[in-house]
Amino acid sequence: MRVLLIHGARAALPYLARMDTQLGAWLQALLQRAKRNVVVVALANKLARIAWAVMSYERPYEAAAVPSS
């Protein structure tokens, strides 16, 4: 399961980092200060926690947009 999450995170990272969401902003900031493979593992961890929350609370995932400044 861990390998699948990491492969999925590696594939999704370029797309998610360009999105105008809190997740995208978090990824952009993390990419500035950490190596890419570390960011991939951090994203896989975050995706696993999101998946757990979605299944536990039986609610759809809603990505919040980043407020424009």
Q: What is the averaged pLDDT score? A: 89
What is the string of helix and strand elements?
Answer: HHH
Question: Per the principal axes of the C-alpha atoms, what is the gross shape?
Answer: globular
**Uncertain regions spanning at least 5 consecutive residues:** none
Radius of gyration from the CA trace?
A: 12 Å
Measured as a percent range, the helix fraction is: over 70%
Query: Per DSSP, what share of the residues sits in E-state strands of 2 or more residues?
Result: under 5%
Through-space gap between termini: 39 Å
Tally of DSSP β-strands: 0
Classification by helices and strands = mainly alpha
- Provide a count of the helices: 3
Overall domain count: 1
Query: The biggest beta sheet, please?
Result: none
Description:
- The protein is mostly helical and 69 residues long.
- Helices cover 74% and strands 0% of the residues.
- It is globular, with a radius of gyration of 12 Å.
Summarize the structure.
The chain is an all-alpha fold and 69 residues long.
List its traits.
single chain, 74% helix, mainly alpha
Which helices and strands appear, and what pairs or packs with what?
Elements: H1 2-18, H2 22-33, H3 36-57
Helix pairs in contact: 1-2, 1-3
